[in-house]
Amino acid sequence: MAGAAPRVRYLAGFCCPLGGLAAGKPRVLCHEAEVFLSTGSELVYVYDQEGGLLTAAFRFPDQVWHLELLAPRRLLYALCARRGLYCLSLDHPGRSRSTSQDDRDSEDGDQPSPVIPVDPDACILPDAALCAFTLLDSVLVTLVQGPARWKMQLFEQPCPGEDPRPGGQIGEVELSSYTPPAGVPGKPAAPHFLPVLCSVSPSGSRVPHDLLGGSGGFTLEDALFGLLFGADATLLQSPVVLCGLPDGQLCCVILKALVTSRSAPGDPNALVKILHHLEEPVIFIGALKTEPQAAEAAENFLPDEDVHCDCLVAFGHHGRMLAIKASWDESGKLVPELREYCLPGPVLCAACGGGGRVYHSTPSDLCVVDLSRGSTPLGPEQPEEGPGGLPPMLCPASLNICSVVSLSASPRTHEGGTKLLALSAKGRLMTCSLDLDSEMPGPARMTTESAGQKIKELLSGIGNISERVSFLKKAVDQRNKALTSLNEAMNVSCALLSSGTGPRPISCTTSTTWSRLQTQDVLMATCVLENSSSFSLDQGWTLCIQVLTSSCALDLDSACSAITYTIPVDQLGPGARREVTLPLGPGVPLCCATLQWLLAENAAVDVVRARALSSIQGVAPDGANVHLIVREVAMTDLCPAGPIQAVEIQVESSSLADICRAHHAVVGRMQTMVTEQATQGSSAPDLRVQYLRQIHANHETLLREVQTLRDRLCTEDEASSCATAQRLLQVYRQLRHPSLILL
Length: 743
Hints:
alpha+beta
């Protein structure tokens, strides 16, 4: 809230484990001045807010997972883990206990209230697999953890004043499948996230609000109710049970249709409708008023009055929030508007309050978002009277309260505002009074143009982040490959060094034979590389073979020419062999072969081949000399696997036009070669793409400077143009070192 901090008042403290209370199991219910509280342990407390005293504490045989209060009958229902459903009469608590002095003495001295052990007879529905329940007017709905599926069961509720034990089962349907958690045989394991059940009724239903489940039901406006649950539920005026599952599914079951299907069996799966999938555990389902006028009126409702909500919300554990509301589309048709919001997580608990506000707690903060700040109503015929839309984004406002594990929102207070009842992870019960009249921070109402511009900016930012993530991922992959190759090299090196005088784990044998190539007899060498180790030689390994003349082979220190063949070794696994055949006759160096390739269609190629030239000088049509020089170079910064053998082609001439013509001819020959290699499926080696991008970016900057300097030469006088020409020459030299690389 902007400008006003919430007023927090601590009411009481309760025992909690060393690490604090875990989210999901604690519950806080409030009815008038009484607070019913469960910390997820075996104890359920009753606290009187007016007197500031703990009036009672009930001890159950196992952990309490869920509480619901049927206020008109003064009945408290509690789900006990691996035991079943218990019912306690708050008017006659003595019926649910068997007190003794030992029980009182065993409790902490700072708890003045007696601890009441719950009698086993209070268990009205024993079922070790029961995981969730909710109450309606005359129906008890339970959710049971089956061997591989969730099972929803319906039971008849007794009339007021009768035994609270439910009557016979009147309906049953199976929900989606799931993977059951591992547990001890005979004792099912507790699910990490409990399912969420709540009841929903249409506004025209005759079921009073206080009998919808007391603390676990709400009423929806007819428009939204019909859009969500269909014509059958609307015509039957049937309550609907919403179920949020740990796998993220949000599904619904029409109760009257389920009861009818028991007398006229059909396909039970047709009774279950999946509304949405949050793809994360559902931890809260609720509803609220979001229309400005309706939300303001809803704040003034008394606790027992019926409030018709116009928006359904559901929270996922990791912060994904779903909001569904009836809205008009462009054609003037009433359709369900569904929006997903990503809020800070993980979400420990949530609650719906007045004024279109939704409260949710994370380990670090208690936040509030405003769903009433939607778009302008767009009715087809009466634009100002139709329902408004949901806001395009939500901006959570901090309440500066951390680690709230259970939350309950009370109606509007006498002072004006909302009162929250919260239980912290440290076991502290507190009230938080909020001033709803103060302005909340949030997105201002935007025009269509500003909204479109905002969307473009967000999409641009997403694109930039996505591109950076992709680049970082590639960089990480390259480093992982480099580390894998380094580890592989270390393993192979250790294997070679530890072999001693025994057989080599990796060996190369050579044999020679005569072969006839192009009407000449040529001596060929066949080299067989064999991997006898337990390691694999993957990409990056290279077999280097150096061929010397017989005189040089006897004296390695003598200066003579030698030919080195480099053969990449790809995927040479354990036990694999690679065979390579090489000519042992006299050549051609790489630079000489490149020059011969460039002059393949020229009559001078025979002279170049005969004399093994690496440079040549010719005459252009205009009489200027053109010098073509080919040098062999090694690119050391381009490939992570090692240096790449390459050639540098240099064109020299006194005529700039002749240099351009020769450059164009050389590039044309290379383009032809690249096109032919691409059709053959050949590919470039693993390169440092970022290094190439940096070279390209630097060249683009230098080329822009060249254009600027050339434009300046046309306008400057002779004295100033000399310095400009010198700078232009320096830029040209920078463009050549390093030069552009054509692969």
